[in-house]
């Protein structure tokens, strides 16, 4: 556990004093990343540094969902396991083994960090949001806090910007099929995170196509090798 604490403090130090992200709060219901109650925190995913940054910035008890294939990589498994990361099978939506673990941690006062895209996207658009976070929010009654990250970490002198929304719950609705409702709420939050990201970039007004009309990311050949 000492090694985990050392790594955690190193990451916190790097984020606080070297990266120095600027956090913009958009709503009176959230004015700190030390939450007074468990929340489901969702954000866009631009690089592998995003999870580390949110883990460092959120000061209250928190867990993070990570892709099972990454969780099982030997070079990451030891650390992720000791940080109580929760693996999720992003290639099998019927595998809900993550759900019981997540709900148990929530009952113990943990907030949950989720990147609903399931993978990084570097071309500026957002992938479809998987509906697992919406299902979790609806079943637990936890509020969703949306964060837009500008994703700029390598520009000299630039402080990454995060724009944070207020708390918003996903209520149960009668007369609408569960899958249809969760898909609708997932797209709603996708557009919300997009607008927060555009605010972080200072590019308000850009329109994100709905998930079904958003083109697949074109990955350069050199990145595939």
β-sheet strand percentage? 15-25%
Sum up the overall morphology in one term: globular
Task: Please tell me the overall pLDDT.
Answer: 90
How would you characterize the largest beta sheet? 7 strands, mixed
Structural class: alpha/beta
Helix-strand topology string: HEEHEHHEHEHEEHH
Structural domain tally: 1
Stretches with pLDDT under 50, minimum 5 residues: none
Termini Cα gap: 36 Å
Overview features:
7 strands; 16% strand; 8 helices; 225 residues; seven-stranded mixed sheet; alpha/beta
Kindly describe this structure.
The protein is of the alpha/beta class and 225 residues long. It has one domain. It is 39% helix and 16% strand. The chain has a seven-stranded mixed β-sheet, sandwiched between helices. Helix 1 packs across helix 2 (49-57). The N and C termini lie far apart (36 Å).
Précis, in short:
With 225 residues, the chain is α/β, with parallel strands linked by helices. The protein has 8 helices and 7 strands.
């Amino acid at each position: 556990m000492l090694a985990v604490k050392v790594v955690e403090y190193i990451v916190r130090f790097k984020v606080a004093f070297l990266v120095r992200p600027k956090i913009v709060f958009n709503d009176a219901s959230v004015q700190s990343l030390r939450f007074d109650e468990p929340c489901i925190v969702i954000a866009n995913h631009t690089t592998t540094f995003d999870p580390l940054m949110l883990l460092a910035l959120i000061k209250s008890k928190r867990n993070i969902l990570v892709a099972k294939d990454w969780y099982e990589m030997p070079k990451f498994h030891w650390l992720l396991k000791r940080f109580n990361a929760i693996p999720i099978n992003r290639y099998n939506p019927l595998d809900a083994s993550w759900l019981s673990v997540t709900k148990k941690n929530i009952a113990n006062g943990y907030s949950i960090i989720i990147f609903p895209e399931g993978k990084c996207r570097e071309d500026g658009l957002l992938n479809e949001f998987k509906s697992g976070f919406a299902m979790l929010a609806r079943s637990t009654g936890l509020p969703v806090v949306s964060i837009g990250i500008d994703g700029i970490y390598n520009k000299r002198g630039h402080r990454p910007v995060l724009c944070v929304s207020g708390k918003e719950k996903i209520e149960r609705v009668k007369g609408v099929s569960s899958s249809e409702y969760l898909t609708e709420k997932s797209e709603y939050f996708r557009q919300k995170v997009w607008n927060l990201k555009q605010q972080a970039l200072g590019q308000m007004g850009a329109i994100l196509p709905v998930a079904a009309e958003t083109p697949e990311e074109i990955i350069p050949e050199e990145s595939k090798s």
